[in-house]
Structures are given as structure tokens and as C-alpha cells.
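A quick aside before the break. I want you to see a complete sequence-to-structure record at least once, exactly as it would be stored in a machine-readable document. Don't worry about memorizing anything.
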Amino acid sequence: MKTKARIIVKNENRRMVFSGVMATLAIILVPLYTLWFGTRQNPMEYTLSMFANRFDQMTEFFIWSTVTGLLIAYYIFRLYGKVDFRNKKARHSLILSSIFLILTALTPAVEEVNALTHKLHFMFAAFFALFLFLSIYFFSRYLKSIDETVSRKSSRYLFLVVLGSSLVYLIFGDNAMFELFFFLSLSVFLIFLNRWIKRLDTGFKTRN
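That is the input. The structure line, written in C-alpha cells, reads:
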């Protein structure tokens, strides 16, 4: 029995280490992959969707959106698991955000070619951000029941991500600069959120 228990503990430790390595890779790959794709053309002149539609990079855009959406969802889901957060609305919202990011890449965004798909593209992009922030908002409310300081920090930093992206959009206009800022600042925010969660003094052990 003791040997079997040791094997179970050993396997669980391996699983946690593997999960931690994957999460670290995920949060590193998101900004790096976004920078790589977002600088293939002039980010001061075109948005990421314009890269895809005007320079025949639809496949690359689809791969980027799929990989990025899944990596962000994986990392956030792991944060939820660390504090046993099981809110269905938050989880469903996070899944929907990934789906809408992928739909954004699948929908052509050139207005002069197709006005309908152009509108759908921006609608999907808005829904991606909306459901992502909604999911994190539910999580922030849950954290308030554990530690109000962490909850306030997460809310403030998330607000800075939104505010910063909006300001970059207003300053530089409709190009990839605000998109690059959004995904990079979101990655930094999630890294900090992970560190804050690790320091929580909860009634259960958070996973590394």
C-alpha cells in the first residue's frame, strides 16, 4: 500500500511539474509569437487581419489566432485550478473567447471586398475581448473572498490593459500597435496574477 501511495504521489508531482512547464511555455510563446507575426509587415500601417487579407497570410493568421487563443485559455484555466475556481460562467466565457478569436481570423476583414464579413470580423474581435474580460472578472470576484488585495490588484491591472490598449489605438490609429500592446500587456498581467496567487494564504494548498 505504501509503495502504491508513493507511486501515486510521484505521478502527481510529475503531472504538476509538466503542467507548470507547459504553462510557462504558454505565457512565453503568446507574446513572442504575437511579436513575430505582428512585425512581419509594418505594424504602424496595418492591423494583424490586414496582414492576412492583403498579403496572403490567412493560414498564418489562422494558426496564430488558434495557438494564441488556446495558450491563453490553458494558462488562465491553470490559474483557476490553483485556487479551485470552478465557476461555470467564467469557464464558458473563456472557451467562447478562444472560439471568437479563431472566428476573427476566419472572417475576411477587407471592407471593400465584403462589407458583411468586415463587420462580422470586428464583431467577433469585440466578443473575444468581452468574454475574456468577463471570465477574468468572475475570477477577480472570487479572489475577493480569499484576498481582497489580490482582487484589487487584478482588477486594476486588467483595467490598465484595457486603458492602455485604448490609448494606443487613439494615438496610433487602426493598426497593429494596439493589438501588440494588448496581447503583450495581457501576458504580463497574467504572469503577475500567477505570482500573486502563489503568495495567497488560502485554506488549501495552491499548485505550483
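Two observations worth writing down. The mean pLDDT is 85. The chain is about 80% helix and 0% strand. We'll return to this after the break.
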